[in-house]
């Protein structure tokens, strides 16, 4: 990632809807250069452009952090990868300190936590214990929200 990539990313962070033409004009490069740079950054999993919502805007869900201890340290990456693939999970971090892994989960208010703990989380082997932290208020936090359930909603025409 070079300086131009970083400047493109900075503009997208400021406004993810900014057009390639606008970015090119600001950075004084061609639109093709911007398009190719963004394509390479996304293909290499260095950048993901997506719509995010404030957790405070969705009253039906709550943000939780879960501290996770695993049985065997050599399984940290395998367990973390499995956790990151769960629909409810926003992020997974391998950490130092009291917990081996920290999970950021976006769960329904009614029975979401217990359903998550007894369902998807329990299905992943190698987890010894968890501790749950409810986020009461967040500042500067944005989450990915699946507004329309693609499995149950008819396609838009």
Strand order of the largest sheet: 2-3-1-4
Euclidean distance between termini CA atoms? 40 Å
What's the CATH topology name of the largest domain?
Answer: Alpha-Beta Plaits
Described by strand count, sense and barrel closure, the largest sheet is: 4 strands, antiparallel
Total DSSP helices:
5
Task: Give the tags.
single chain, 157 residues, alpha+beta, Arc Repressor Mutant, subunit A, Alpha-Beta Plaits, 2 domains, 4-stranded antiparallel sheet, 5 helices, 4 strands, 31% helix, 20% strand
What does this structure look like?
With 157 residues, this protein is an alpha+beta fold. The chain has two domains: 41 residues, Winged helix-like DNA-binding domain superfamily/Winged helix DNA-binding domain (Arc Repressor Mutant, subunit A); 80 residues, 2-Layer Sandwich (Alpha-Beta Plaits). It is built from five helices and four strands, in the order H-H-H-E-H-E-E-H-E. A four-stranded antiparallel β-sheet has the order 2-3-1-4. The C terminus is likely disordered.
How is this structure best summarized?
The protein has helices spanning 3-14, 20-27, 31-43, 76-84, 112-118; strands at 61-70, 89-94, 101-108, 127-134. By secondary structure, it is an alpha+beta fold.
